[in-house]
């Protein structure tokens, strides 16, 4: 048996039309999974789907606001209807509002928490029934090194990602007997559209990241292909509740 073969499996990747989500989607598709790309930007999702289809797998785009329960439940029903089942969920959708804590409004706090953490709970809950139907499932959630470190302008983001780690552990204990494995990966500094904007805002960031990262480079979205395939495949059937850094040893320096 090829432990990493995902042929016949169906994956949902939220925020899968760019950045780390697209890197995960590429890995899953290359391993043979059909992929549903979930996002709000229809043009970006269409481009991602075309790229995945070119790898020889079935891929579809589904528009949804994953912080809204009705949207999430409709999205999961749509994917199950179009692709036949749901085996894998990648909770990747996220965002940040960079402000000092004293300047962050309650509405902005809720926006970040809902986008990053509540969405993961809603999507996991909605997929659970589909996993039970097929005898098991895999949940991979995008955490952050900000679940380990603090930073002055990331109060809501850090809280949401710390919550993602604990959500992962709680779901893992709740659903282990249902053969559902739930794990979390913690990206370090990765070259994406989002971090390029951050680098434009903080000109010294690029060099400081390189200086601290033992691997000597920024991450790339394709660095997430492997962790996605591992955590979505039979290779990780006894791995659940784990939190895995994908950061070039950035967080290992303490």
Description:
The protein is an alpha/beta fold and 254 residues long. It has one domain: 3-Layer(aba) Sandwich (Rossmann fold), CATH 3.40.50.720. The chain contains 8 helices and 7 strands, in the order E-H-E-H-E-H-E-H-E-H-E-H-H-H-E. Helix 1 runs parallel beside helix 2 and helix 3 runs parallel beside helix 4. The longest helix is centred in the middle third of the chain and has 29 residues.
Give the helices and strands as they follow along the chain: EHEHEHEHEHEHHHE
Assembly level: single chain
Which of globular, elongated, flat, extended, rod-shaped describes the shape?
A: globular
CATH class equals: Alpha Beta
Structural class: alpha/beta
Discrete helix count: 8
Radius of gyration over all CA atoms, rounded: 17 Å
CATH arch. level architecture: 3-Layer(aba) Sandwich
Strand order of the largest sheet: 3-2-1-4-5-6-7
The CATH superfamily is NAD(P)-binding Rossmann-like Domain
Q: What average pLDDT do the residues reach? A: 96
- Can you tell me the residue ranges where pLDDT is under 50 for at least 5 consecutive residues? none
Number of strand segments: 7
CATH topology: Rossmann fold
Give a quick account of the main beta sheet: strands, pairing sense, barrel closure. Answer: 7 strands, parallel
Number of domains: 1
Helix amount: 40-55%
Strand content: 5-15%
Distance between the termini: 39 Å
């Amino acid at each position: 048996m090829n432990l990493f073969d995902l042929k016949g499996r169906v994956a949902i990747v939220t925020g899968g039309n760019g950045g780390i989500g697209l890197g995960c989607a590429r890995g899953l598709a290359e391993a043979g999974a059909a992929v549903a790309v979930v996002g709000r930007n229809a043009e970006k999702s269409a481009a991602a789907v075309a790229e995945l289809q070119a790898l020889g797998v079935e891929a579809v785009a589904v528009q949804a606001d994953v912080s809204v329960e009705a949207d999430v439940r409709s999205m999961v029903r749509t994917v199950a209807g179009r692709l036949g089942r749901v085996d894998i969920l990648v909770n990747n959708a996220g965002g940040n509002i960079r402000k000092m804590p004293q300047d962050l409004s309650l509405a902005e706090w809720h926006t970040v928490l809902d986008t990053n953490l509540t969405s993961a709970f809603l999507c996991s809950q909605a997929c659970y029934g589909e996993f039970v139907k097929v005898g098991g499932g895999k949940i991979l959630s995008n955490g952050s090194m900000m679940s380990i470190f603090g930073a002055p302008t990331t109060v809501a983001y850090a809280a949401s990602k710390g919550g993602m780690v604990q959500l992962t552990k709680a779901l893992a204990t709740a659903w282990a007997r249902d053969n559902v494995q739930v794990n979390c990966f913690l990206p370090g500094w990765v070259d994406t559209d989002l971090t390029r904007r951050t680098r434009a805002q903080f000109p010294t960031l690029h060099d400081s990241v390189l200086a601290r990262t033992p691997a000597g480079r920024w991450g790339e979205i394709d660095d997430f292909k492997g962790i996605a395939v591992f955590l979505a495949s039979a290779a990780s059937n006894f791995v659940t509740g784990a939190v895995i850094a994908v950061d070039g040893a950035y967080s290992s320096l303490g």
